[in-house]
Amino acid sequence: MLAAAIEEFAEHGYHAAKTASIAARAGISQPYIYALFESKLVLFLAVQDLVGVRAREAFAAGWREAEPGTGSKQDRLMAMGQGYRRLMADENLLRCLLQGYAAASNPQIREHMRAIYLKNFDTLRSLTGYDGATVARFIATGMLLNIGSALDLPAEYVYTFPFS
Length: 164
What we know:
With 164 residues, the chain is an all-alpha fold. The chain has one domain. It is built from 8 helices and no strands. It has helices spanning 2-16, 19-26, 30-36, 40-65, 73-88, 91-102, 107-128, 132-150. Helix 1 (2-16) packs parallel to helix 6 and helix 4 (40-65) crosses helix 6 (91-102). It starts with a helix and ends in a 14-residue tail after the last helix.
């Protein structure tokens, strides 16, 4: 059901998404959605939590893939970025994440997206040992890549800068 919700929110955003469409995609009844989630808002926030968890897992997997001692700390950071890129190749996850930011005019969504961002930031800082400025540049590059991917921009329009 959460996969169906990710697809629906990715395609239509928070405001235009319909729980009836999510139910149809998932092959369940609409009342069952409301048995699990008290509102469309609560479902949307749960979906954003899932995307945030998957991003943190992708960062951690990328960090682990670049084994300590086999490359520089910057190489490991780049491996984290590659892990995130692989995750965001799923267009539904990418668009769903962007829809979360787009819906942040709603104070509850804004606070929730803010908490997810802070948790991701703190996870990156903890994993890497980098300072806040370096982590902020890493995240800024990721956001640039998100936009480039969402718009299917040619590589020369998405400049990525070094992190050290």
